[in-house]
Amino acid sequence: MTDTAHTRRTIPDRLGTKTSRILASWEVLLFGVAVLIFVFNAFASPYFLDAWNLSDATFNFTEKAMIAFAMALLVIAGEIDLSVAAIIALASTAMGAAAQIGVGTPGLVAIGIGTGLACGAVNGLLVSGLRLPSIVVTIGTMSLFRGISYIVLGDQAYGKYPASFAFFGQGYVAWVFSFEFVLFAVLAILFAILLHATNFGRQVFVIGNNEFAARFSGIPVERVKFVLFLLTGVMSGIAAVCLTSRLGSTRPSIAQGWELEVVTMVVLGGVSILGGAGTIGGVVIAAFVMGLVTFGLGLLNVPGIVMSIFVGLLLIITIAVPIIARRIREMR
Amino acid sequence: MKKILKHREILLLAIIAVMIAGFASRAQGFAAPGNLANIFNDTSILIILALGQMTVILTKSIDLSVAANLAFTGMAVAMTDAAYPGLPLILLVIMSIGIGACLGAINGYLVWALQIPPIVVTLGTLTIYRGMAFVLSGGAWVNAHQMTPTFLNVPRMPLLGLPVLSWVAIVIVIGAWFVLTRLPFGRAAYASGGNPTAAVYAGIDIGRTRFFAFVLSGALAGLCGYLWVSRYAVAYVDVAIGFELDTVAACVIGGISIAGGIGSVGGAVLGALFLGVIKNALPVIGISPFAQMAISGIVIVLAVVFNARAERRAGRIILRDRAAPEISA
């Protein structure tokens, strides 16, 4: 999108070592921020250092982080999906409608994930099949998916989910570790393997760095992108299952504005918005940072909208600081 | 290229005319001049915002913070008016444009000086500006009875058959047309989006052009802050939430390429009117207003598909961007 893209493309052979070095320091920096926030919170509020409170705090980011993993891959490949929150709304509405006619828990989960998959396929077909710019396409499908929820529900809400369905959002696997947190951890490992240790992950990086070269190297660019949109859809579906189960009800305005928080998480995690660089580890730390910030501010009775100022500032500052630092270094 | 663009606008105009005729057959009086003037007045704010958004998109950027800017500025002028009822309206209008331009300048500066991608900058400032509106007001509303009558009434005052709000939109449409087609800035905006490399060689400062595009978009958003608050006679934090997407939608429908460099003022205005007609028609023909969101979603997707085909056929860009999809075909 900007001119920096050109410099990025001109020295692709040196990029590997250079970016990995910058990224290593980025994650260390981010980890330091997380520790600082943790310590600050512990001093600011006497309720912070409590296993159950901390466990509650994880719900602030687990669902968003699940989507952020898939989004990270998509952004690394040079695309974006702004419809993720709308997919949650549509999947949740589909599950709600099914629950009203008595579909059991396994059926509901299948419907939620299936809806996500279908929405991802729509995005994927439009972007990689018709080769349209993903940012506008997903702004459109964002309106479309959430719009369908509004048509179905209007100002109504679905409740009455089966009792066993509550496990995904409210259940605990062991001690203070909730099902959601364990799922988050497992997915983090799976995505880290997918991105950093498989052929597919390498292809994602190549596409993001130089789509032109990727095509000449025989990488099925459109197919990889399509799969990434499917993956993002599925993760949104899984997030929808967790969120719906946690809230126990569905409104069309569910998860409103989450797409921005997910993108913030991804960018904060050190993934280049221009594509071609990023790690799952960074996204995991970014998830903790955002969760800790919002939870800590919540304990201090800071209203949610003021927290969003901090999230917005965090996004801009974390991107601006390395750029300014590099400028200062270059000036010497 | 000009021919295709003209075709496109005429086509869009024809679609809008057919839509109005169709709605009029279901609901008598929909096509009456009075109702059409009403729809235009109702769409005025969207038209103004879409023109600002278009200028930004032309330079290969995007401004997602316009609605948040509108909310903050609207809150600021409404509170000022409530606190100092003696202030003349013109000062408040200048203040709204000034605040809006400052917020736009912050976006522009981050994009220009720090080279942060515009989508990231405005995604961040979108939450910050709306958060600031909350901090400013403490979550309180400014209601109609707290605002002065002049503040509320001037935009609705009829002038030569149309409310002042409509005239403001018309003046800004003409102004945008003049700036984008008759001034060096307009040329620079088209060039820095159409082919940034060539623009640099031609001596155009892309960063500066983007900066001013953001300032312009911010100033228009600020003005709309006043117009919105006075039109709906209330100011609160969630004013115009999500409206930034409507402005992008209006641009996309109007044939403005999200990749930058392509589009016209007429297209943006027609794109906004297209959405305005749909919005006003739904309740008239008995479709639930809840369907509006899905319909605009479908329209956006269709418009993008249509745009992509038109751009491909045009073949205007001789030096293709290296990442362009045509290369593999």
Descriptive overview:
The complex is a heterodimer of chains A (332) and B (329). By secondary structure, chain A is mainly α. Chain A contains 15 helices and two strands. Chain A has helices at residues 4-10, 12-44, 51-58, 62-76, 84-100, 105-129, 134-153, 167-170, 179-196, 199-209, 211-216, 221-247, 258-268, 280-299, 304-331, and strands at 172-174, 177-178. Residues 1-15 of chain A have low confidence and may be disordered. Chain B is mostly helical. Chain B has a single domain (2-18, 45-313), classed as ABC transporter involved in vitamin B12 uptake, BtuC, CATH 1.10.3470. In chain B, helix 2 (33-58) crosses helix 12, helix 4 packs antiparallel against helix 5 (118-137) and helix 7 crosses helix 8. The interface between A and B is large, with 56 and 57 residues.
Side-by-side strand order of the widest sheet of chain A? 1-2
| Main sheet specs of chain A | 2 strands, antiparallel
Which chains make the largest contact? A-B, 56 and 57 residues
Provide a count of the helices of chain B: 13
Please give the share of residues in helix of chain B: over 70%
List the helices and strands and how they pair.
The complex is a heterodimer of chains A (332) and B (329).
Chain A: H1 4-10, H2 12-44, H3 51-58, H4 62-76, H5 84-100, H6 105-129, H7 134-153, H8 167-170, E1 172-174, E2 177-178, H9 179-196, H10 199-209, H11 211-216, H12 221-247, H13 258-268, H14 280-299, H15 304-331
Antiparallel strand pairs in A: 1-2
Chain B: H1 2-26, H2 33-58, H3 66-83, H4 89-113, H5 118-137, H6 149-153, E1 158-159, E2 162-163, H7 164-182, H8 184-194, H9 196-201, H10 206-232, H11 243-253, H12 265-284, H13 292-314
Antiparallel strand pairs in B: 1-2
Task: Briefly characterize the structure.
Chain A has a single domain, classed as ABC transporter involved in vitamin B12 uptake, BtuC.
